[in-house]
Amino acid sequence: MSEQPRRMQVLQAIVEDYVSSREPVGSKALVDRHQLGVSSATVRNDMAALEEEGLIVAPHTSSGRIPTDKGYRIFVDQISEVKPLSAAEKRAVQSLLDANGDFNEMMARTVRLLAQLTNQVAVLQYPHADSSTIRHIEFVFLAPRRALVVVILSTGQVDQRAFGLEVEANETSLTVLKQQFLRYLDGLTPVQAAEGLRLALAEVPAEDRDLALAFAVQLDQMFAARREDRIIMAGTANLARSTGDFPFSIGPILEALEEQVVLLRLLTEMEQDVRGLSVRIGSENTGSLSEASVVAAGYGSGAKLGVVGPTRMDYPGTMTAVRAIARYLSRILSQ
């Protein structure tokens, strides 16, 4: 084996060992644990060359080496084939995502499952609903002064919201009101719904205006949530267990997770490679995420899901899980 392929093999071994143990890796350990087919002296020379190229570094006074952001990048780029999930993982994904429940519950299950599979923070951007249209709405009494609004979209997604009423109403008035709103909202996208609500309210008799306004406010807030990009996440506790992987503090990363605009911008900017994945490592991210890695994939009609974690990450396993979940979700949403 020539020098360069062997050095890439040594780099791969260092990444794998360091990700597994969190301990700097020495030449003797590499020779003992990996079938490199060369002596410790040759491995030491390869490590010196890798260090000179900026792919590995000695932390403090340790005799071992750890990968740099550049080293992780070379390692990730060498992954030519993303392995499929195991049979057990496939069954778990299928059963969980096929479970009954509304759209929001399914998205919440998805992000929790991704966090469990990767042991990282999972983030999921809600799909853009520009192409979804309003197919039906329903107003339901839950109690004398409490009602439920239900919106069904052309994609089959169902949104619902319960709220308190400050005015008296009866079933008949709710039925008439529902028909009035539906006349102006049927077939519109959430983006167009504000104008439909305005037109519907303009034709409501004065005596029913307060009741109509109460329902219009709830509908507008539901449509606004669909008009805005938003993110849900799970597994923040996984990040808290990785504090040793961050030289300074996980505080800035936690703040970035809370400020969804930072994540939304990052996910939007990330372009997928030929494997259907986007991977940003450490310093490739700017600002508060410069000590973290992000692995993401697109699903549906342009939205993205992924994970955020330390640069000392199981990249092959994480890439497998992210791509698999994105594909499962795309398939479900297209049905």
UniProtKB/TrEMBL annotation:
Keyword Metal-binding set for record: no
Check the record and name the Pfam families matching this protein.
HrcA (PF01628), HTH_DeoR (PF08220)
- Highest taxon above the source species: Bacteria
Q: Which UniProt keywords apply?
A: Repressor, Stress response, Transcription, Transcription regulation
Sorted alphabetically, which InterPro entries does this protein's record hold?
A: DeoR_HTH, GAF-like_dom_sf, HrcA, HrcA_C, WH-like_DNA-bd_sf, WH_DNA-bd_sf, WHTH_transcript_rep_HrcA_IDD
- What family name appears in the similarity comment? Belongs to the HrcA family.
Biological role stated in the UniProt entry: Negative regulator of class I heat shock genes (grpE-dnaK-dnaJ and groELS operons). Prevents heat-shock induction of these operons.
Protein name per its UniProtKB record:
Heat-inducible transcription repressor HrcA
The protein's organism comes out as: Citricoccus muralis
